[in-house]
Amino acid sequence: MRWQWRIYEEPLREPLATAQGVWRSRSGIYLRLEDEQGHVGYGEIAPLPGWGSETLSADIALCQQLPPHLTPEIIATIPEALPAAQFGFVTAWQSVGQLPYRLRPWPICALLGSGRVALEQWQQPWQQGQTTFKWKVAVLSPEEEQGILTTLLAALPQVAKLRLDANGGWDLATAERWFAWLDRHGNGKIEYVEQPLPPDQWQALLTLAQTVTTAIALDESVVSATEVQHWLERGWPGLLVIKPALFGSPERLNVLLREGLEPQRLVFSSALEGAIARTAIFQCLETWQPCRALGFGIERWRSAPLLTSLADYDAEWHRLDNYGKNYYK
Ligand SMILES: O=C(O)CCC(=O)c1ccccc1C(=O)O
Ligand SMILES: [Mg+2]
User: Fold this and answer.
1) Which of 50, 198, 52, 192 is nearest to 135 (CA)?
2) Residue ranges of the Mandelate racemase/muconate lactonizing enzyme C-terminal domain (predicted)?
3) Distance, CA 193 to ligand 2 centroid (Å)?
4) For residues 137 and 219, is the Cβ–Cβ distance under 8 A?
5) Is residue 322 very low, low, confident or very high in pLDDT (cuts 50, 70, 90)?
6) ipTM at complex level
7) Catalytic amino acids?
8) Residue nearest atom 8 of ligand 1, based on CA coordinates
9) What number is the average pLDDT over the span 163-171?
């Protein structure tokens, strides 16, 4: 199987502020495979350095070193330390001759910007039928955020659900105060709090999950399949955010599900990947059958529409030409 790759860097439509800083652009690598009969396939490597996945330079080094003809055996040698590359190559290989996919629309959770803008930003997605929202916290002080949250919770209709994402930005004392506040004021509308403490504080995270009423989801703690496995062995009782683009080969999740991981505990979420990876993820969802709204409501920051024809793929392959350099095998 012959293949080509192309590095891109695309500015976000607006900066995304999280507890870990402000993001302004997103880089990755698009892959294009073609077999002897002319069947094509596409894949995307979209690592998030600083997020437990590899760096883009590590993926570039991998692409430079792989031979001009791919086989499943070669793809299987991609090391565990490069989970975004594993995802990109495995899904690219699976897509050859299968495109375009016919995909279902799933309920989506709309991401709201940190701070007061959330009070406006939920309304348009609500009018379009979305009922789950996520708000970035640990960006302002707890007092400021709880003030805004009081208004937001009062404004949201009773059937709406709100996720809070602290991106590991609280310490234990702050988290305990926040959970006490949420137990009193959550109004039945808080679906869960995502990554309240830094990813490595596993004992404190386990204790919190066993003592507070509000559900907790791990995100940064469980970026790759190996980490998910580790937390399951530790007895993590809560939810798990899966960012498929950073997770490794999708087959790893199939195995965990076959071994009894309950699908209701999973929340699938975007890593602000591009259209090729997003479409590959939605193809995986046909197998994974998500039970909760997908954390893919990120259009405000990056437009990544599902690709529904080979012409769409071809256009996407060429679209980011101006952002990155081209490399051909
Ligand atoms: O999960 C969602 O609902 C939206 C996506 C999101 O929040 C996100 C996007 C890129 C990187 C990290 C995160 C995060 O969950 O913290
Ligand atoms: Mg998160």
Assistant:
1) 192
2) 115-215
3) 9
4) no
5) low
6) 0.98
7) 136, 243
8) 271
9) 96
Are 48 and 173 within one domain?
A: no
**CA of 40 relative to ligand 1 center, distance in Å:** 30
CA distance 21 to 110: 20
Cα-trace Rg, the chain: 20
- 165 is an annotated ligand-binding site residue: yes
2-18 and 21-34: which strand pairing? antiparallel
- The CATH number linked to 29 is 3.30.390.10
Ligand nearest to the CA of 268: 1
The tens digit of pLDDT for each residue in 63-79 reads 999 999 999 999 999 99
Query: Does 294 contact ligand 1 (Cβ within 6 A)?
Result: no
Both tokens assigned to 83:
């989970």
74 within a domain of the structure (yes/no): yes
User: Is 103 within 8 Å of 132 (Cβ atoms)?
Assistant: no
Q: How many domains does the chain have?
A: 2
- The span from the CA of 106 to the CA of 160, in Å, is 16
What does the alpha-carbon distance between residue 56 and residue 78 come to, in Å, rounded to a whole number? 15
Rounded distance between C-alpha atoms, residue 106 and residue 285, angstroms: 9
Q: Is 162 in the pocket of ligand 1 (CB under 6 A)?
A: no
Protein residues placing their CB within 5 Å of the ion ligand 2: 165, 194, 219
Q: Give the domain range for residue 272.
A: 108-297
Query: Counting atoms of ligand 1 from 1, which one is nearest the CA of 269?
Result: 1
